[in-house]
TrEMBL record:
This is DNA-binding transcriptional regulator, MarR family. It comes from the Bacteria. One of its GO terms (molecular function) is DNA-binding transcription factor activity. Keywords: DNA-binding. Residues 29-129 form the HTH marR-type domain. Transmembrane segments: none annotated. The lineage of its organism: Bacteria, Bacillati, Actinomycetota, Actinomycetes, Mycobacteriales. It comes from Rhodococcoides kyotonense.
Length: 153
């Protein structure tokens, strides 16, 4: 038997999934880059958020096995999306950074998503727009809470 929190959670998941899927459909293939599989995208996002991370750091943050992250990183390096650099504190280790070209492509994709979403927001009634604005702080709080829970699991 579901409760109102379960129903709301299902609605939030559905809306978030649909939003991501629909925005992705608006991205041109040329001039950006292909959509990455989720695991690869998570590694790239983690390196963006924590530049100069080691593979073990990423594995810990994503709660994945070291060898899994190592394979993902190798693939991303081969695709030219991540760069390996010597760790300045330990010459035996490497740290990871997002390739500058990847950063530029990501910014173009973000700009396009904002353009598409902004145009659609412009079609909302003033009351609908205010409702979206009012929901944003709660969405941010949900994300922060989920992030904290996942870090402590």
């Amino acid at each position: 038997m579901s409760n109102s929190n379960d129903d709301l959670a299902r609605g939030v998941l559905d809306a978030a999934f649909d939003l991501r899927r629909v925005l992705r459909a608006h991205l041109p293939e040329s001039g950006t880059d292909e959509t990455l599989p989720l695991a690869q995208a998570e590694v790239v996002r983690t390196v963006l958020a924590f530049p100069d991370s080691r593979i073990g750091d990423i594995a810990t943050r994503l709660k994945l096995r070291h060898n899994t992250v190592s394979t993902l990183v190798r693939t991303l390096v081969d695709k030219g999306l991540l760069d390996r650099h010597p760790d300045p504190t330990d010459g035996r280790a490497v740290v990871l950074r997002v390739n500058e070209e990847r950063t530029a492509r990501r910014e173009r994709r973000t700009d396009r998503r904002i353009e598409v979403l902004s145009a659609e927001i412009g079609q909302l009634t003033p009351a609908e727009r205010r409702a979206v604005e009012k929901a944003l702080p709660a969405m941010v709080k949900l994300n922060e809470g989920l992030r904290l829970v996942s870090e402590n699991v």
